[in-house]
C-alpha cells in the first residue's frame, strides 16, 4: 500500500531524512517513534506529498508521490491525515468541517456529504455537537472530529502525527480508543506516537527513527522484546521509566 | 484675541449663489466619502491579491509582491499622487495622452486620486493580509492540502476566511487612514472636504469656524467607520475563538 | 512628451539638505517622545485603574480620528495662545516647537496602540514568572514585559516610523520647510515642480528602503 | 503718537515680526540663499523704517515669519506677526477680520495661453478646459462667468500657481486665468518663456495691501504715511522697475511687465480702497 | 508551612475554587492531580498570591497571603515557582535569568548572584549553557534552568504547576530526576502533575481535585491503594490505562 524507497530530504544544507526505506502493507498498522527532531513528522508528511523530497521515491497505492505528473490533490484525497493540533477549521461548524472536502473535492452532494459526516460523528460519539464550532469543544473531542473528518473521505489508509500529544491525560484515551477500534477493523495505518500502550495493543510493526534515519524496523514483539540498536534501547528505557 | 466669531457664515450663500457654505462642506464631504470608498475597494482587492501572493510558494510571484509593497510604501503619498496625475499621462502615447488630458478634469482628478490612494493603501492592506495568513498555524494549510484541496481551494476555504477575521482590527485602522489620506487629493484640485475648509477660509476669512467644522466632520466619519467595523467584527466572530463566545 | 530639466537640483542641494535636517529633527523627536509617552499611555490603558485606562483610551481615540494636518494646524493656532498666557507677550518663532509638540503627541497615540499590542503579545505566564520571583509589578513591567513587547513590535514600530518620516511633509501647513516642502518650493520657484518632486520621491524611497533593510538586518542579528 | 497697541508692543519689545510669503514671485519670496526679497517686501521695509523713526528707536529688531494663505489671517490676529505684505488682496470679507494699509499694487485678472493656441480673449474659452488657482478672485470670477454666459468651460482649480501653470503646460488646460503680475511671474519661470503670452481684457482689478491688525489706527497711520511717501516720491516706481523690468533672482529672469495705467494712478493718488 | 483554609474563588459568576482546605508541612511533598479545569493551577497560584481569592485564607510560613497589608513581593521571593511553559525570560541569557531577581529583589551583588546561579546551573547539569539564550535550549533543559532559577532565591518551599506536561517524552525524565532529588533532600514541595510514577516515588500525600473542590486528600499509599471517591477512581483508571 505504502512503499518508501531510499528517501532523502534536505532543508537547505540540513539533511532531515537519510535514505529511509520501509513499507506498509494493506491492513497493517505501523507505529513510528523516536526522539524529537528525528524526522518522524517529516517522513509521514512526505507520504502524502505535503513535504517534497529530493531523492528516492514513495509509492502509495500504485501512484508515485515524487513524480511531478502526479495529481497530488487527488492522491491526498484518498489518504486520511490527522495532526497533533487537530487543525479543524475554526470558522466552520463541525458539520461544515466534515462536509466541505467531500463536496469540493469528491463532488458529493451536500445531503450525501452531511449524511456521511453525521454518521461518522455518531461513530466517534459526538453527534450532539454537530452544530458547534471547534473552539467550543475540548481537545479530545476536537481530535475525534478530526479523525471523523479524515474518514469521511473514505481513505484507503490513514496517517497520524502524534494525535494525542497535545491532549490532557484524561482525554488521551478517548482518542486512542477510536484509533484502536479503527485498527481492529483493518484500516491501514501509519502512526507517529509515543503511546507505547497503543503500540503494544494494535501495532504490527514499530519503526524507530533517529537523526533522520530508520534505525530499527521490527515486528512489535521483537521491538518491545529487545531492540537491536542501542539508541532504541535507551529511548525505550527513558520513555517507559516513570 | 480680537477675532470675530460668526457661526452664521455657514448659512450665507456662496458667491455664485447656488448654495450656502454649509452646502459646500457637504459637497466636499460627498467627494471625500466617494473617493475613500472607491479607493478602499481597490485597496482591498489589490491588497488581498498581493498579500496572498507574498505567501505563496513561488519565488517569482512572492518577490513581485514584495517589490510592489516596498515601492508603494516607501514613497510619500503626495509624490505618488503627483506622478499619477502629472507624470503618467506624459508617458502614454501622445494621442492617447492628449485625449485623456482633454477629458473632463473632474474625472481625471478623481481617477488619479482613486488609483493612487487605492494602490498606496493596497500595499499596507497586503502587509496585513500576509500577517494574517502567517499568524495562522502552519498546520491549517497542511490540513487543507491533506484533505485533497488544491492550493487555491486551501486559500479560499481555509486560510483567507480566518486570516480576514483576524485582521479586522488593523484593517479598521487602514480604513480610517484612507479617509484621512484622501485629503491629499486636494493637491491636484479635487474639491474634497479639507479643500472646502481651505475654500471657506479663502472666501469668508473665518478660519476657526471652518477648521472646527471640518475637524468635527472627520471625527464623525471616524466614529461611523469604527462603529460599522465593530459591528462587522462581532458579526464574523467565530464561537470559541479569539474573543468569541 | 514631457521635457525633463533637472538643472535646478544641484544648486538646490544645500537648501534641500536644510529641509532634510528639519524632517529628521521632527521625525526623531516624534519617535523618541512618541514612544516614551506612548508607552506610558499603553501601560495606563492596560492598568486596572478604570479612570486611567478610560482617559488613555480617550486620548488615543481622539488623536487617531483627526487627520494629522488638522492636529498640526490646531497646535500652531492654539499653542501660541497658551504660551502667551504663560510667558507674556513675545514668543517668537514657534513653528518648529509647535510642529514638534503636535507630532510627538499625535504619534504617541499610534505608538501606544502598537506597544499595547506588544504588551499583550507577551504570554501572561511571563508576568506570573516575574511576580513569582518576587519582582514588584513595576519591575516586572520594566524588566520582563516591556523589553519583549518592544522586541516583538520592532517591525510595526519601524513601519510607523517610515509613515511618520513621510508624514513630516505635512508641516507645510504651518509654513515650515521640511525636505518635501523645500523640494516643492524650489520646484515652484524655478518652474520645475515635476522634476523636484520625482527627485524627492526617489530620495524618500532610498532612505526608507535603506533604513528598513538595516533594521531587518539588525533584528536578524540580535534577536534569536 | 496715537494710542496703538501694536506700536506699544514694538516699542516695549524693541522688535517687530513681519509676515512674508515664500514663493510669491516677484512680490515676496526666497532667493537661493533663503533671504526674503521682492517688491512687496521692499515696500514693507519702507514702512518698518518709518516705524523705527516714529518710535525713535535706536535699534529695531526685525523678525521674519513665513505665512501661507491658510494661516496668514490667524497669525496676524493672534499676534504672531505684526504686519504682512505679500500678494494679499484687500477685499471686504477680509476687512471684517483685519485692517489693510494703503494699497501697494493693482493687478488685473487676465489669461495666459500658448502663443499658437488661438486664445485671444475670454470668449475663446467656451467649451474648453481652463485652469485657475483655488481660492482666488479669479476662481470666483470665472465660475460666475461660466454660469452667467453658459460657456460650458471645464474649470480646474489647482492648489497653487505652480500647479496651475503645470496644468496649462502639460496641455490639460488651454488657458490659465490669474492676476496678471503672477502670470508674468509664472511665464518667466517656464522652460520656454517665449511660448507663452498674457492676453485678454482684465476681468477685475484688485488691490494688494499690507495686512495689519484691525482697529489699530495709530499703527495704520504710520504705515500708510510711509507707503504714500514712497509712492508719491517716485521711490516706489524705482522699486517696481527693479522687480518687473529687470532680471531678478534666483535665475535672472526678467518679467518684462510695463507699468499699467492703474499702477500709475495708484502711485499718483495712493489710497486704501478695495476694488469690487 | 503552607496552610490553606476554606479558600473560595470566583471569576465573575463562575466559582473556580470551593472551600478548599489542606496543609503542607515542612519537608512534605504533596502532589495535586485532577481533570483539566478542576482548578489545580488556580489553587497553586493562590498560594503565592498570583491569583487573589475572595474567601478563606492561606498562611505561608506564618504570613497571611490574603491580608492586604502583606508585602506579596517579599513573600513570593521566598516561595519558588515552576511553570508548565518554563517562562524563562527570552530576552536574557541563562545567567541573567538566574541572577536578575537575586540582584533586584534580594539585593545581592552581581558577583555573588552569578556565583550562586552558576553553582545551581551546574547542579542541574547545564553549566556549559550559561551564556546562551533560552530559545537555544531544548524544553527539558529550559525547565531545568527554570528550577535552578527558583532555587537561586533560597526558597523555603517550591510550587510546581505541571512542570513536565509541555515536554517531549524523552525529556520528561531529566526534569523529574531533578525534582526527585530535590524531594529527597527534604524540600517542601507542592506539585501539580499527572506523572503518577513521580507521585509514587516521592509524594507523601496526594490531593485530588474536581470542579474546584478538593475531593480526596490522602496519604500516597491510601490514594493509590483505593481512592474513596468514585471520580478519583475513574480518573486514576483512565490515566493509568494505556
Ligand atoms: N521548515 C523547516 N526548515 C528547516 N528545518 C526544519 C523544517 N521543519 C523541520 N525542520 C527540522 O527537521 C528536523 C526533523 O523535524 P520533524 O518535525 O520531522 O521531527 P519530529 O521527529 O517530528 O520531531 P517532534 O517529535 O518534535 O515532532 C528537525 O531537526 C527540525 O528542526
Ligand atoms: N482568567 C480566567 N477567567 C475566567 N475563568 C478562568 C480564568 N482562568 C481560569 N479559568 C477557569 O477556571 C477553571 C480552573 O482553571 P485552572 O487553570 O485552575 O484548571 P487546571 O486544573 O489547572 O486545568 P489544566 O489541567 O487544564 O491546567 C477552568 O474552568 C478555567 O476555564
Ligand atoms: Mg513531529
Ligand atoms: Mg493548569
TrEMBL record, chains A, E:
Look up and give the membrane topology term.
Answer: Peripheral membrane protein
Protein origin, superkingdom: Bacteria
Q: Which InterPro entries match?
A: AAA+_ATPase, ABC_ATPase_HisP-typ, ABC_transporter-like_ATP-bd, ABC_transporter-like_CS, MetN_ABC_transporter-like, P-loop_NTPase
Q: Which Pfam families match?
A: ABC_tran
**ABC transporter domain ranges (all copies):** 2-236
Q: Where are the transmembrane segments?
A: none
Instruction: Name its cellular compartments.
Output: Cell membrane
Q: GO cellular component terms? A: plasma membrane
Q: Does the keyword Kinase apply?
A: no
Kindly give the SUPFAM superfamilies that the UniProt entry links to this protein: P-loop containing nucleoside triphosphate hydrolases (SSF52540)
Is the keyword Transport in the record? yes
What are this entry's molecular-function GO terms? ABC-type amino acid transporter activity; ATP binding; ATP hydrolysis activity
Keywords (alphabetical) are: Amino-acid transport, ATP-binding, Cell membrane, Membrane, Nucleotide-binding, Transport
Family of this protein: Belongs to the ABC transporter superfamily.
Name of the protein: ABC-type polar amino acid transport system, ATPase component
Which species does the entry assign this protein to?
Azospira oryzae (strain ATCC BAA-33 / DSM 13638 / PS) (Dechlorosoma suillum)
Which lineage ranks, top first, belong to the organism behind this chain? Bacteria, Pseudomonadati, Pseudomonadota, Betaproteobacteria, Rhodocyclales
Automatic annotation (TrEMBL), chain B:
Pfam families registered for this protein in UniProt: BPD_transp_1
Where is this protein found?
A: Cell inner membrane; Cell membrane
- First-listed, main subcellular location of the protein, grouped into a coarse class: membrane
Q: Where are the transmembrane segments?
A: 31-53, 65-86, 106-125, 145-168, 210-229
Membrane topology per record: Multi-pass membrane protein
What CDD domains does the annotation carry? TM_PBP2
PROSITE patterns assigned to the protein according to its UniProt record, in alphabetical order = ABC_TM1
Family, as annotated: Belongs to the binding-protein-dependent transport system permease family. HisMQ subfamily.
> What is the name of the protein in this document?
L-glutamate ABC transporter membrane protein /L-aspartate ABC transporter membrane protein
Natural source organism: Azospira oryzae
Automatic annotation (TrEMBL), chain C:
What keyword terms does UniProt attach to this protein?
Amino-acid transport, Cell membrane, Membrane, Transmembrane, Transmembrane helix, Transport
Question: Could you tell me which InterPro entries the record lists for this protein?
Answer: AA_ABC_transptr_permease_3TM, ArtM/GltK/GlnP/TcyL/YhdX-like, MetI-like, MetI-like_sf
Q: Where is the ABC transmembrane type-1 domain?
A: 20-215
Q: Tell me one GO biological process term.
A: amino acid transport
Show the stretches that span the lipid bilayer: 20-44, 51-79, 91-111, 156-176, 196-215
Tell me which CDD domains the record gives.
TM_PBP2
Q: Where in the cell is it found?
A: Cell inner membrane; Cell membrane
GO cellular component terms, alphabetically, are:
ATP-binding cassette (ABC) transporter complex
The protein's role, per its UniProt record: Part of the ABC transporter complex GltIJKL involved in glutamate and aspartate uptake. Probably responsible for the translocation of the substrate across the membrane.
What is its quaternary makeup? The complex is composed of two ATP-binding proteins (GltL), two transmembrane proteins (GltJ and GltK) and a solute-binding protein (GltI).
Stated name of the protein: Glutamate/aspartate import permease protein GltK
